[in-house]
Amino acid sequence: MTGGRRPDSDWIQVHADQEYVIEVTLKRLNKFKKRDSKAHAPRFPKPKDEGWFLIIGDIENREVVALKRVGYLRGASRQSLAIYTPETPGRVIYTLYLMSDAYLGLDQQYDICLDIIPASIETQVNTEISNELNDLDFSDS
Questions:
Q1: Does residue 2 have a pLDDT over 50?
Q2: Which of 7, 94, 97, 117 reaches 20 to 30 Å from 36, CA-CA?
Q3: Which strand ranges, in their side-by-side order, compose the sheet holding 108-117?
Q4: pTM of the model as a whole
Q5: 137 vs 125, 128, 134, 140, CA distance in Å?
Q6: How far apart are CA 111 and CA 97, in angstroms?
């Protein structure tokens, strides 16, 4: 891994121009005895609920790919973020950010290395069928 290169085992193969769902599990490590969603903010004029943002971004293109706000964490929480892969094959690195809206210094970031391969006919057909089913109206009108 010299020169900023990543080993091939870090890359996840995905098809071009497809929707994928990334599931993130958030777990609180320091469990409070008091079940309180309020952040410690003595200089804030009123009580402040702690919250989190999950952001997936493409640093190279300066683009936000997905964004989700998560409220107070009680123990563990599973969150899903939907992303669309780029249309052109190649390698891209998305970065997942976990950012606190109440505390400084708790932000984290993780790289998601995607190896974009050309979309197969099968995945395109399944997507087209899925899109057609979504457009159907099953109401009794």
A1: no
A2: 97
A3: 12-15, 108-117, 90-100, 52-58, 63-70
A4: 0.73
A5: 21, 16, 8, 9
A6: 9
